[in-house]
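Hi R.,

Here are the chain sequences for the assembly we discussed:
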Amino acid sequence: MAGSTFGTLFRVTTAGESHGPGNVCIVDGCPSGLELSVDDLLPDLARRRPGQSRIVSPRKEDDTPEILSGVFEGRTTGTPIAILIRNQDQRSRDYGDIKDKYRPGHADFTFDAKFGFRDYRGGGRSSARETTARVAAAAIAKKLLHATHGIEIVGYVDQVGELRYTTEHPEQVTLDQVESNPVRCPDPAMAEQMESLIKQVRKEQNSVGGAATLVARHVPAGWGEPVFDKLRADLGKAMFSLPAVMGVEFGQGFGVATARGTGHSDTFVPAADQAPPITTATNRHGGMLGGISSGLPIVLRCAVKPTSSIPQDRPTVDKHGKPTTIATRGRHDPCLLPRFVPMGEAMMALVLADHMLRQRAQSAL
Amino acid sequence: MAGSTFGTLFRVTTAGESHGPGNVCIVDGCPSGLELSVDDLLPDLARRRPGQSRIVSPRKEDDTPEILSGVFEGRTTGTPIAILIRNQDQRSRDYGDIKDKYRPGHADFTFDAKFGFRDYRGGGRSSARETTARVAAAAIAKKLLHATHGIEIVGYVDQVGELRYTTEHPEQVTLDQVESNPVRCPDPAMAEQMESLIKQVRKEQNSVGGAATLVARHVPAGWGEPVFDKLRADLGKAMFSLPAVMGVEFGQGFGVATARGTGHSDTFVPAADQAPPITTATNRHGGMLGGISSGLPIVLRCAVKPTSSIPQDRPTVDKHGKPTTIATRGRHDPCLLPRFVPMGEAMMALVLADHMLRQRAQSAL
Amino acid sequence: MAGSTFGTLFRVTTAGESHGPGNVCIVDGCPSGLELSVDDLLPDLARRRPGQSRIVSPRKEDDTPEILSGVFEGRTTGTPIAILIRNQDQRSRDYGDIKDKYRPGHADFTFDAKFGFRDYRGGGRSSARETTARVAAAAIAKKLLHATHGIEIVGYVDQVGELRYTTEHPEQVTLDQVESNPVRCPDPAMAEQMESLIKQVRKEQNSVGGAATLVARHVPAGWGEPVFDKLRADLGKAMFSLPAVMGVEFGQGFGVATARGTGHSDTFVPAADQAPPITTATNRHGGMLGGISSGLPIVLRCAVKPTSSIPQDRPTVDKHGKPTTIATRGRHDPCLLPRFVPMGEAMMALVLADHMLRQRAQSAL
Amino acid sequence: MAGSTFGTLFRVTTAGESHGPGNVCIVDGCPSGLELSVDDLLPDLARRRPGQSRIVSPRKEDDTPEILSGVFEGRTTGTPIAILIRNQDQRSRDYGDIKDKYRPGHADFTFDAKFGFRDYRGGGRSSARETTARVAAAAIAKKLLHATHGIEIVGYVDQVGELRYTTEHPEQVTLDQVESNPVRCPDPAMAEQMESLIKQVRKEQNSVGGAATLVARHVPAGWGEPVFDKLRADLGKAMFSLPAVMGVEFGQGFGVATARGTGHSDTFVPAADQAPPITTATNRHGGMLGGISSGLPIVLRCAVKPTSSIPQDRPTVDKHGKPTTIATRGRHDPCLLPRFVPMGEAMMALVLADHMLRQRAQSAL
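And here is the predicted structure of the full complex:
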């Protein structure tokens, strides 16, 4: 397992670099009979794309996906679905600088340490360009989850630098609220402040970190495995597999460190209108108990670092260890969060689709 | 993959419930030729065991492991190593209460939702008793990592409730410091305060959360895979697979949300005495860049919730959704953190041993 | 994946050597709610055991299994089922001979080449003793297949040396016929001849090969995957994973080499009483088309070599390559076939149980 | 695991149907630093292609592969290598006949039984067109095996109908001999007879089966795992995953059924010029003992059925079970064997490359 496949039953394998011919994903294990066309892939690819707004990288990427297999007469056939997204922005440039120097905070050095050499053009395989393939694959997962269980996955930015948006009810945030502004913060006033901060940071030739919350509604109770493949564990892995994620927390999260047992455990209460007729009065547990979904909304939060690509001269070393300086010029996001939202949603969808199929396989006789 | 196997090449499969005959692990993939005996398993099992100190559960568990296979004339043979740890504490008691009622914060309800029924004795498969098998398996991983690369893994408690211990140099904390007190906090004064808090919480029939830091020293640069199986992703999954973990962060962690790019990225500097001759001046990145180890110490931190087992009467429902009350009497830890440390170290060791073998397989020609 | 786990969803992991403390299997992925007790494991273990008849090894192995987990109140819980079978026959003997010399046809040399050294007592991990764990695990698979689909798996010996039993209707052979004689050939007259041949071969201090047919009835149409994980491919792997199997064929088998298209393809015909209402008039295809089950009985055949353990002095080399001689004294089977039958059935059951769960997961929406 | 991925460490995932836009493979796990270009893929694709000679299907397929990722400046980077081979022959035709009727011997019925419907154009995913992706992936595996160990893989046709070619020394057959005639039988006289038979069968609107032998030379001793993942088991699975394979045998194969122990086991003898200095005098074992390579050539043989596509009217049923007739008109191979050779070699190469990496990972400390 060389690390480019994700999932056990709903399996996604990706390939591609930022400046090679294209990015590819193969989705294996999607049940037959799901209506699917290229149009289903476009919205999330557009949400992930650079150049979508005034506060993200102005880079132009024309993410037109082509479905190469696995769909016939508008429905999935049960065989693997391959999707190709060609890279458009391959103009030749001078990479002399990053070819031999290590950009601080980037994977240049560790790729060389691992592989002996690397495709240095635009980050190669470590570029966020790689997430196009994930987002395309996850559009299928989202559709499968919605078609079979009505599951909705919504992410939003809740922090940019010191600006923090909080809500008692993350599960009530809607996609419309999120998409109403370029920051993807559901509170318009806060979104405006965040946008100002992002613009200011860009003007200062700097970048800023932040955080995003991800919610999945209508996940039935009973998904996830008891020990190593807890739903929480697989979601955690999924989030940490995304570039720049430095922290993940579920429900009350790091707040549990100061909690007392009496103040943390959510109380079970009757819920006459659902099966099983049981829910909890609060959702500090974030929708999973013992790693298995409880029927409550799944709520998690990711901390995303400020992009390491900033156009200031900074000290570093070259590949022989000799001191030098480098500036990452180019068209980078001053804040990764707005474009992180669809990436986080994508990984959440992949995990849930996988566990949906696992539960189908292993549910009680 | 039903969720009881962890790892790709250094693979651990576990089985066992808290009140069945015993817990078992099978470690498959350990290279041949590693010196190994039962004695190597005992120290970490003792650190994990209840009854080890005045601030943990007084339950008696006699964790005597038996190696059933895979070791011959004192060395691993390359074939799977099975370890059996019998459960001693199986005295019959009246489980009537937890048989039909759902304990708040526990997995009783979600297990029923998933499987239709459950082994309700002492938590069954969701009991922390299950981690004995992990800790035994990980003792082999630790030995392998140390024998081949001199890797050391040390965890410590850095927070109990509001009491927080911080250090500029988590990588300098020693096992001796950690084991010098029952809390497993390296600062003796802080450890004493934490112990007082834990005792007070117990007296109040309550429990308290906290956090622990885990460090791996001497991991070479180049371990981990670029995309889905980032070392960070696999470590994140490993930690979230442990009971009660609600948050995980690496390096600067959630602190990155307020960081600027200039203040986050660690500067590369020459390091004449190592190969490659490159390191970073600081370690805000937590030892991984792009998901691949950088040669710096790996540093992560876990938030652990207060145990849900508290001896107070609390409202809940029974399995039909009827309101009732329950108190979890028994011999529970008022704070999980002291015993979490060896569990966290264990999961860290399993991930690193797996990626060590993966790097052996896939390193450059 | 170090080779001791089999299956994707119905997963079996085994450990154990012939002369260590015991053999273990962990069955992960069995759905909850299947009635199971130790008694379900005994019949096939007895059929596999040495000492069961006058024509197999007279070795005494007391295969008493202990279920360590995963079963509660007589039913599977959905958590992993661990089974321990202790080795009884561990009397110390002088292994000096096989310690340093390579027995012809055995794995002594290749184990040393792979691992650098080996547990030489009785074959260690390469001993057929290892199959006890598989047979125990497969008893669960058989029960699951029968409880959910009425599937029956029956194997029988169809060849011992030159003696060959053939039938137009392998799918009509019953377990009673097979178990009516120690050879496990359903034809009593042929069984007697085979028994005579086996006894004669033993008298000559030699061994003899043979073949066995395995049949699975009532497997529904639609199991198996189109490409790499064809049902045929997974069954083929399963059979070749058993000791001494040198050939596997399905349906018409090697007979297809001389066939013409007109004489091979089975004609589809209506089958009013089943769903889908379609079957084939003949079963030269062996129950799978395109690697997917057709609803016809699955029929395969395995060639099993004569055991390499014969008590005659033969030339060989020691581990330094120096010529010497060796005789494998001990209590060996003069013909492996009678005891191969339950092993073959076991592997067939494991594959089918796995694909049953896979089909549950991935069947059409 | 939905069946479109093969291998543990050298992992190939494929997608594609015969009449969709194209076939894709992603090769994940190839170590970095292997010289690779599109030219390396062409020879085996040409050997697999229809239209290559007067005795295979005259269909035109322009198998021009495009490498989409994983190669930089002429060398593999260690990241996944995606290869796209577009389908050229997608002219629209009338599929009315095979849309609703089941062709005898084909997977039409079983695909419908599994998935509920199918891409009926030209066999869809069950078409041999799918093997283009395998052959392209395996060209990389072959190059890796040769570059690191000098391993050579050669297959040849040894049987067409009643015509059988045998040799005492399959390991001495050369690629030049095989490629000297369109049948791919190394004996020119026999090849001519086989060619005549194939032409006659085609004239009779029929097809004919056959068999092929596959040899791998210079595989070092020690590859393969002791139990489930025996090299023999993985090779067996690989072969049975190819279309039309109904039997597989290793070394002496089904001949072992009539063998005596004294006549089967190969005698170990000194081999001064190699390490370890040990070999066997004969190779009835086919290059593996206990599932682990012995250093002798690996030799296996596959029986391949006559293609089920013959242009004669034959009785069958439609998808509702109603009797009808069908003739598979089109441009089919009267004998699959000549084109089977590169497919068989491909699967052998994938298995060996995988076990090469596994041995790298798990070899003795």
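Chain C touches chain B through 45 residues (CB under 8 Å). The mean pLDDT of chain C is 94.

Let me know if anything looks off.

Best,
T.
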